[in-house]
Amino acid sequence: MQLCDRSATELARMLRKGEVSSREITESVLKRIDEKEDSINAFITVTPEIARKQADLADRRFRENKRVSPLNGIPIAIKDNMCTQGIPTTCGSKILENYIPPYDATAATKVLQTGAVLIGKTNMDEFAMGSSCENSAFGPTHNPVNLERVAGGSSGGSAAAIASGETVLAMGSDTGGSIRLPAAYCGVAGIKPTYGRVSRYGLISYASSLDQIGALGRTVEDCGLLLNVICGHDKMDTTSADIKRPDFLHSLRQGVEGLKIGLPKEYFVEGLDPHVKDQVMRAVALFNEKGAEIIDISLPHAPYAISAYYLIATAEASSNLARYDGVKYGFRFSDEIPGLLNMYQETRSEGFGKEVKRRIMLGTYVLSAGYYDAYYLKAQEARALIKQDFDEAFRRVDCMITPVSPCLPFRLGEKMADPLQMYLVDIYTVSLNLSGLPGMSINCGMVDGLPVGLQIIGRPFDEEMVLRVGYACEKMAGHG
Amino acid sequence: MDYEIIIGFETHVELKTKTKLFCGCAVEDGAPPNTHICPVCTGQPGALPVLNKRAVEHTIRAGVAMNCTINRRSRFARKNYFYPDLPKGYQISQYERPFCENGYLEIQNDEGRPYAVGIKRIHLEEDAGKLVHSASSFEASDYSLVDYNRSSVPLLEIVTDHERNPLRSVNEARTYLEKLRQTLIYIGISDCSIEKGQFRCDVNISIRPEGALDYGNRAEIKNMASFKFIMEALEYEVKRQLKILHSGKEPSQETRLFHEGKKITVSMRSKEDAPDYRYFPDPDLVEFEIDQEFVEQIQEGMPELPDQKVNRIIKDYRISRKDALILTKDRDVSEFFERCAAFCDDRVRLSSWMIKDLFKLLNEAAVTIENCPVPPKEFSTLITLISKGDITDQIARTVLGIMFETGEDPESIITRRGLKPIQDEERLERVLNEVMSENPEAVKKIKEGMTNPIDFLIGQVMKKTEGKANPKKVKDLIHKKLSPPKQS
Q1: Which of chain B's ends, N or C, has fewer CB atoms near its CB within 10 Å?
Q2: Contacts of B82 in chain A (CB under 8 A)
Q3: Which positions ≥6 away from B463 have C-beta within 8 Å?
C-alpha cells in the first residue's frame, strides 16, 4: 500500500512517530495525480508548489517538536466552490473561470491553519447543481472504481480524489446530497453535518438555507478528524450555530448495542434498486446482531421532499446567482453590440451551463408575482412538515438508516438527457437538507463491482451518533 | 364636483452609523472611490451579510419617535433586480414584517390643527453603489464606472399610509417632510442632508371625487433632488390629474419623472411595465428577534422630540409659542438658546436677540449655529448688559458685530473701544443742559406735560455722547429737572 492510499488517521500516527515526512506523503499524492488525473479529472486546479511548501512547513513543525494538530502535514483537497485567497475558485463554471478570490472561506482558513497540505481544488457540478459531476464546465469526473461510471455529484471531484489516492482528505459541500451521493458512488466516507455546524462564509452559495460544508475521507475516523477542525460558530455567518463543538472522535468506538435504529418505510419502496436494498438490509441485520434494536418508522411527508427541494433550492439559486453579471469579476461577454442589457444577457447565456440556466429559470418562475404563494410558500410548508416528521420519529429512535441512492453509480451520459431522472437520484438525501439534519454515507457492500452507500441520519447536532454508527458499519464491512 | 387629493411619501434616509449595514466597512462621505469596500459589500462569491446592530437601534428609535408598533420578530428580504451599482443582483431590504409598522407623525394641518399623519411602515435596507458615467446618462456614455463606497450603507425607508390620515394637500406634504426631517435629526439617527443625498423622497399622488370609496389611480414621481422640486412636481401633478379628471377621463397608474428645467412630470413606465422584484426572505440572515427590554431601553434613552421641546421651552422660559417654534426648528439652535438661557434671566430679550440679530449675522456669514463664533455664555452677558440698561440696543448691536467677527467677549470690547456707558451723572447733566438750551421748544412742551419730546431729548443726548449715555439715567435726569407728570 502506498502512502497516498492510507487513511489520514494512520498517516497522522506515522508522522507523529517520525516514520514518514509530510513531504513524502505529499509527493506520493502528487505522483498519483500524475498517473491518474488524466483519466479521472478529479481536480480543476492542482497546487503542487503550494502543497510542497506547506508540506515542508509541516515537517519543520514536527522537527521543532511543536504541538501540532492531527491534520498537520496531511494532504487535503478542497471543493472548488470554497474561496481560497489567491488560488482560482471556479465553482465548476465558465463564468468564474478566471476568478481569484481576495479572501479565504472560513472552513478553508481553519483547515490550512492546522497545517494541512492543500493539494488542489476539486471538480464539481457547476455551482453544485447536479448529482453526477457531469455538469462541470471543465469536463466530468470519472468514478475511480469504474471509469465508465459517474462519480456522483456534486462533490464528485472530492470523492473521486480520495478513492483514487489523489488526496487523503477532502472538503465538500452538500445542498441536496452533494457529499453523500459521490461518497456512496466512489465507496468512501462522507458526512454532511447539521445545518449551521460549519460556517458557510466563503462557500459560494447555491441554496443558502440548504448548503452545508462537510468532510470526505477514506474512513469514518478521518471524517471525524476533519470535522473537529472545520466546525464551530463564525461571526461572519449569522446562520452558523453558536453551540459547543464536541470531540467527534470521542464516542466513535462505543458500538451500536442498545441503540434504537429507525428504518423509514418510505425509503424502501418502489424505485429502489433491489440490489441496493439487499446490501442495506444486510447491514441492518448485522446491526441487529450487534444488539441494536431495529424499529420501523414512517416519515409520511417524504414523498414531497424532491418537489419541495427543487422549488426552494432553485428559488434561492436564482437570486444567489444574480451577482454573476459580468460587471465586477469573472467572465464578461463583449462584442460590438453595445448596451447594458446585451452585456447581461450574453454574459449569462455564455457563462452559465445548461443545468444552471434551467435552475435559474425555474427559481425565477417560483418567486414570480402570482406564483410565489403556490410554489415557494407551499414548498416551505412542505419543508416544515418534513422536518416535523423527523422530529416525531426521533422521539422513538436514536438514528435512522436508509440507502443513499436508489441506484448504483450509473454510466456517464446515461441520465443527462432526462433532468427529472437525474433529480430523482437525490430522493433519499434532500430531506436532510430540508430539515437541517446531519447525515453520513458509508460503504456497506458492492454489487457488480460497484459500491453501495448506506445513509445514517442523526438528530440535529448529533454528529457523534452518526459517526459512531458509521464506524460500527465500517468495522462490520471489514473496512478501515 | 369637489376632489380629494391623496399624497404618499416613501422617504429614504441614510443612517448615521460608523460602519455599513452588513459589513465592517466605514461609512464616509466623499472618500476616494472604492476605498471602503470588502468582499461583502462588493458581492464577492461566498461572502455573507452580518447585521449592524446599531442600525437596528436607530430604526427602532425612529419607530418609537413615530409611535409605531415594533415587531417582535422581523426579517430581511431580497429585492431582486439587475443594475451595475447593485453588486449582488439583489438589495437586502424588508418586505413582510419590517421593524416598525402602523405609527403616526403629528403635524399642523392646513386648518392649523394637530393632524396625525399615518405612517404605514419603517424598514431598514442597504443602499446601492454609485455609477459615474462618462457622459450625462448611461446610454450616452462610452463607459461607466462604479464606486461601491456607498454600497450597503444603511438606509431607513419611511412610508406614509394612504388610508389612515393621509396627506391631503401640497402644503401638508411640505409640512410633513419638514417635520419628518426635523424629527430624525432630533433623535440623532441621521444628518438628513438633502444635498448629500441623505434624505431622498419618492412621492405618489392620486385624486378622487370627495366622498368616493375607491382611490384614484396613483402616479409615482421620481427624481426630485430638493424639497422645492418635490413641491413643484406635486403642484404640477395636481393640475395635470385634475385636468384629466375634469375632461371626464381617468389618470393612469404609472411612474413619472420630474423634469427640473421644465418643472413638469413625464411618464416613465406604466403599471404593466412595473418590475417584479421577486421578494423573498433572505436565507442568509436569520430572523431578528427584538425583546421588550431592548425597546424599553430605547424608549428610556429617547431624546426630546420637537413638540415636547416646544412645550417645555415655553413653560421653562416663558417665551412666546411663535419664538419657541422658530428656536426649535433646528435642534442645534434650540440647544444654543438653552445654553444661553442658563446664564441669562431675560429670556424674552434673549430669544428676540437670537432670532433678529444673531440669525442675521449667521445668515450673512453663511455660518451654522454650531460654528457660531459667539459663545452662548458671552451672548448671554451681552443680553444681560442690555437688560440692566448698561448699554443701549444700538451699542449692543455694534458690540455683537465685533464679537461675531473677533470672538472677543462683550465687556472687553466695550472697555477697549471706549463704548462704556457714561455713568457719571455730572457729566450727563452737563450734556443734558447743553441739549436743553439748544432745544427750548422741546423743553417747553415737556413742561406742558407732553411725553414725546422726552425721547427726542434722550436721542440728542445719545448723539452727543456717541450712544454711550445710559438712556435710563438720562430719562431720570429729565424727569428730575423738568418734573413732568408722573408716568405709569
Answers
A1: C
A2: 322, 325, 344
A3: none
Q: State whether B43 and A323 contact (CB < 8 Å).
A: yes
pLDDT tens by residue, B261-290: 999 999 998 888 889 999 999 999 999 999
Residue B379 lies in a domain: yes
> Which pLDDT score, from 0 to 100, does residue A479 have?
45
* Cβ atoms of B196 and B153 closer than 8 Å: no
Tell me the three cell numbers of residue B108: 399642523
Range of the domain at B255: 3-297
Q: Which of A131, A132, A158, A178 is catalytic?
A: A178
Number of domains in chain B: 3
Q: For residue B49, which residues of chain A lie inside 8 Å, CB to CB?
A: 238
A178 is an active site residue: yes
Among A201, A238, A324, whose Cβ lies nearest the Cβ of B46? A201
Q: What is the pTM of this model?
A: 0.91
pLDDT in tens, B200-236: 999 999 999 998 888 999 999 987 889 999 999 999 9
Instruction: Among A235, A315, A322, select the one facing B89 at the smallest CB separation.
Output: A322
**Are B293 and B308 in the same domain?**
no
Question: Using one digit for the tens of pLDDT, what is the confidence trace for A347-404?
Answer: 999 999 999 999 999 999 999 999 999 999 999 999 999 999 999 999 999 999 999 9
Nearest by CB: A322 against B46, B48, B90? B90
Q: How much is the average pLDDT of A202-222?
A: 98
**Complex ipTM, two decimals?**
0.96
Among A89, A102, A203, beta carbon nearest to B39: A102
pLDDT tens-digit map of B121-159: 999 999 999 999 988 877 788 888 999 999 999 999 999
Are B89 and A238 in contact (CB < 8 Å)?
A: no
- pLDDT band at B404, cuts 50/70/90? very high
| Mean pLDDT for the stretch of residues A154-179 | 98
Residues from chain A that touch B134, judged by Cβ atoms under 8 A, are: none
Domains and CATH numbers, chain A: 3-256+441-450+463-477 (3.90.1300.10)
Please check whether residues B344 and B217 belong to one and the same domain. Answer: no
Nearest residue in A to B148, CA atom: A328
Cα A223-A229-A231 angle, rounded to 5 deg: 90
Answer whether A201 sits within 8 Å of B285, measured CB to CB. no
Taking an 8 Å cut-off on Cβ atoms, the answer to whether A372 and B280 are in contact is: yes
Contacts of B139 in chain A (CB under 8 A): 339
The active-site residue, picked from A21, A22, A79, A405, is: A79
Q: Are residues B274 and B316 in the same domain?
A: no
Residue where a domain terminates, one of B249, B269, B297: B297
Q: Which of A154, A199, A318, A431 is catalytic?
A: A154
Residues A319, B280: C-beta atoms closer than 8 Å: yes
- C-alpha B153, offset from chain centre: 22
Whether B50 and A340 lie within 8 Å, measured CB to CB: no
